[in-house]
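Dear colleague,

Following up on Tuesday's group meeting, I ran the structure prediction for the two-component complex that the binding team flagged. I've pasted the input sequences exactly as they went in, so you can double-check that nothing got truncated or mislabelled along the way. The C-alpha cells for the whole assembly follow below. Feel free to forward this to whoever is handling the docking comparison.

Inputs:
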Amino acid sequence: EAGVAQSPRYKIIEKRQSVAFWCNPISGHATLYWYQQILGQGPKLLIQFQNNGVVDDSQLPKDRFSAERLKGVDSTLKIQPAKLEDSAVYLCASSLAGGPNEQFFGPGTRLTVL
Amino acid sequence: AQSVTQLDSHVSVSEGTPVLLRCNYSSSYSPSLFWYVQHPNKGLQLLLKYTSAATLVKGINGFEAEFKKSETSFHLTKPSAHMSDAAEYFCVVSQSGGTSYGKLTFGQGTILTVHP
C-alpha cells in the first residue's frame, strides 16, 4: 500500500512570496489533515478535511493560509504572503475516517522563509 | 480541552539498557492515546495506541506503554535499547467526545539518544 505523498520535500522562499504544497493521501482515506511542525515542537493541526469538506480550520491563519481538497482526494496548502515565522515542516496525514483513529503521515515539506 | 506533557525533552541511554519516556495527559473525555516516532527526514510512524481496551499496550519494535488513569500517565518503555531506536518520540492524545473529538494533540517531543 502506497503511503501519503507530499511535494516538494524542501522549499526556500523569501518573505512576502507565495508557496504551495501538495498532498496525495492513501487511497480510500476520507479524512485529510495538514499540520505545521515548528522546530523543537510537536505538530499542530492547521486544517482537517472530511472528503472535500472542512471539518476544523480553527488553527489556520486564514489571512495568509488557504487549503483546498476539491475532489476529495488530493489537497493543496497555500501560504500568501509568507512570513519568517512560517518556516516549519508542513505535514500531511490521512485516515480512513475522522475520530480517534490512526493517522498516517507523509514525509513532510520543509519550508524555509528568508 | 486536552493537553499532553512530555516530561523529558532529551533522554540518553546506552545500547542494551532500558528506555523510559514519560508522558502525562489531560482530557475532558475518555482519551485515546498514541505514541509516534519520527526518524530524521522521515514521516511520523505509529508505535502503539491505547483505545480503552487493555491498559498495557504492546507496539512495534519491542515498545510498550501502560495507561494509568489515576496518574493520568502513558509512559513508553522498552527493555533493551537498540541503536536504531534513536529518534524523536511524540506522545499524542485524542478525545472521544466534545468539540475536540478525534483531534490529535501532540506533546513537545522527546529526543532519544542511544550510545554504543
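Chain B has a mean pLDDT of 91.

Cheers,
M.
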